[in-house]
Amino acid sequence: MPRSDSRFHGTAGSGPCRHANIDFSPHRRALTVTRGARYSSTTPITVAEGVSVERVTPPSRLFGANGLRTGPDKRIYVAQVAGSTISALDITTGDIETISAKGSDIIAPDDIAFDVDGNLIATEYMDARVSVRSPDGTSRVLRDDLPGANGITVHNGRLFVNECRIGGRLMELPLDGSAPVVLQDNLPMPNAMEVGPDGLLYYPVMGTNDIWRIDPNGGTPERVVGDLAGPDSVKFDAAGFIVSTQAGSGQVLRIDPRTGNREVLAQLAPGLDNCTFVDGRLFVSSFDGAITEVLGGGDSKSVLPGGLLWPLDLTVGPDGTLYVADGTFFYQYRGGGELEVVASLFSLNSPGYVRGVVATGVNEFVGATSTGQVVTYKHGPEPETGLIADGFDQLYGIAVASDGSIVTVDAGTGRALSVRGGQTEVLASGLQRPIGVAFSPDNAVLISESGAGRIVSVGAGGVDTVVDGLETPHGILVRGNQLLIVDVGLKALIAVDLVTKARQTLASELPVGVPEGVVAKPLKGTPPFSGPMGPFAGITAGQDGTVYVSADAEGSVLAVRIAA
After folding, report:
1. Which residues of the chain have pLDDT under 50?
2. Are 492 and 537 in contact (CB under 8 A)?
3. Cα–Cα distance between 527 and 346 in angstroms, integer?
4. What pLDDT is recorded for position 179?
5. Which long-range contacts (CB under 8 A, 24 or more apart) does 217-223 make?
6. What is the DSSP track for 109-133?
7. What is the pLDDT of residues 109-161, one digit of tens each?
8. Most buried pick, 102, 335, 474, 561, via CB within 10 A?
């Protein structure tokens, strides 16, 4: 996107309300968006009198960073699965331009390549597609029957693609859209690949932790090197050596393709995804959106800092630590510090792709994962994960009652569920995309029904409306008799008195949801790592009364303080 210094702050005076019973009060609060951030708005945040908003974490500039490719213009093109976005990074200025934005034709791009005519070709992992985007910005789908389409490369005018799944194929795709030519099948999760100086096609196989090569014209594949740690990319340096990122270990390896001997160019954090060269300089991507230059001799330099992909749900532990569920990563934040990874998809005894989370003790949690599981997780030197229930569709918010029963919501099936003692009880069905869950002061179960624009209570008496006239409510939080609602459609934090039903907008024009005019296309997930990747703007509160909100549009956590 163009260079930006958009500002979120309050505006003088109050304008017309979307709903007559919502009170907008004027107050100013300035929040500056990082240049080239992934989300910007010319409309300032407005907060009510006595309310302040500040960022706990900085906004992310990308929606994560997956496939990398150096373009004809020497910029680094970055595919971002979670944001359905492709951006171009100028490594000299640091400017980022959005090439294909969320809501456009290309969905969940995972890897990219360029042909000799400057066409950008992208694999769309979740939609089993490969699309071609021409320099004039128009796109066409080349194939839509390639489940797990991921690794991609162009060599001598020929296009090669593989499927990163169990039983995946490695194939050549004719550019006229005709049937693929399969070079190898039944591969356990091949990934980003490239043709080497010897004319052979080299590709990593994550499921077996090795790198293979094959003649692009067909033949018997040959194993080059093994005993790796989640190799997810293969590129070649000027000397003809393989450079490969290791998702599991965070190592960047240089491998002799003749002998298999290796050296560690850099030791970074786990979660690396891909790499590319610009005039001999090596750059690698990380799932959290970081772009790092590998300098050699074990040294590296940050080009673009990592950040949050969403974030999703939030919870505060008994010791005051803030925890952030961000899908791939689970973070902790202690006041004045930085986000620290507690667990990830690559860590020992990982809780999985966590979307909803609640702290149940010091370093103890109950979570709802995007793969349809309710789990326990204990953080520590020897982390432990336990399975409570399985087989759900799209779990979101989760809460634990005083009697230990767990309540969660399944947006895919429209159900509110209670889990206890290994048994699951359906509290309500037929809900329209339920997202958030909380308990009222009298222990009634409250659900945010995002598809119906309301908050309901569910129980033996059925489903009753508590708050209506909303747009797309997500996270909900009860403090005393006050219900706080994050509405990503209204882009607002709304307070409702559960006794008097009085309603007030505490903050509006928040960086949540999607930008105005954008219709986000569903993210179907990346099996076996995650199920459908729906956003979730969560909310929680600390012991000091600070309210934390997931600013999922810009990738930050907001602290909202409300005067007593």
Report:
1. 1-35
2. no
3. 15
4. 93
5. 218/183, 221/184
6. EEEEEE-TT--EEEEEGGGTEEEEE
7. 999 999 999 999 999 999 999 999 999 999 999 999 999 999 999 999 999 99
8. 474
